[in-house]
Write a structure and sequence with these properties.
Blueprint (H helix, E strand, L loop, with lengths): L3 H9 L2 H9 L12 E8 L3 H7 L10 E9 L3 E9 L5 H10 L4 E6 L2 E7 L5 E3 L20 E7 L2 E5 L5 E2 L9
Antiparallel strand pairs: 1-3, 1-4, 2-3, 4-5, 6-7, 7-8, 8-9
The chain binds adenosine-5'-triphosphate, magnesium ion and zinc ion (ZN).
């Protein structure tokens, strides 16, 4: 039995788009984007940190939808961010990987997914995350950029190259 909402969605979008909408939580009616990026499989609760990485905060003209803490078979709870007219820079993808290591990036053109990839971290990240150790040389007046070795990617475990301080929790708070 189709609900009134189903019929409404069906009227509004083509078959392919309808099936995509159906995959998302019941009652969630979000218009498909024509061009842009869907960041899916974000660890539940991290969507606002993803927006921060994308430089979206306060007042914005960006067309976007954000879904938080919905059930996911893979992750338990997940967030989804859909941004219109935006494709991500490699540096943005790497930052997202730090806080949402299972995220997938779907690039949408003409309403269709033309590319899908998982985020991935390089083995070393430079100048992106501040060391937690206040007396680390990377936190002094010295002109030394932070350097973090990526020990594990999911869950993310970083280790400072200079002082060996580990960093694994609340990484969003240490982004430079
Ligand atoms: N035009 C669009 N506008 C908005 N969201 C879209 C559009 N096309 C796809 N999506 C969303 O992109 C995400 C990935 O879509 P896809 O059809 O690949 O789902 P999937 O098969 O579940 O993928 P995965 O295996 O990555 O979970 C879904 O959240 C879907 O709703
Ligand atoms: Mg899916
Ligand atoms: Zn350090």
């Amino acid at each position: 039995m189709k609900t009134a909402l189903d019929q409404e969605i069906e009227k509004a979008v083509s078959d392919k788009e309808y099936s995509q909408l159906k995959e998302e939580p019941k009652g969630l009616k979000v218009k498909p984007i024509n061009n842009g990026t869907v960041i899916d499989h974000i660890a539940g609760g991290q969507a606002l940190n993803v927006l921060k990485i994308l430089g979206i905060s306060g007042t914005t003209d960006t067309t976007l939808s954000v879904v938080m803490n919905v059930d996911s078979r893979k992750l338990g709870k997940k967030d989804i961010v859909k941004v219109e007219d935006r494709e991500l820079l490699e540096q943005e993808v790497n930052r997202i990987a730090l806080i949402a290591p299972a995220a997938s990036i779907n690039i949408i053109r003409d309403c269709k997914i033309i590319a899908k990839r998982k985020v991935d971290l390089p083995d070393e990240i430079v100048g992106v995350v501040r060391c937690q150790n206040p007396s680390c040389i990377s936190n002094t007046a010295e002109p030394i950029q932070s350097r973090m070795l990526v020990k594990t990617k999911n869950p993310v475990l970083l280790r400072c190259l200079y002082c060996e301080q580990p960093l694994t929790e609340n990484i969003a708070e240490y982004l430079i």
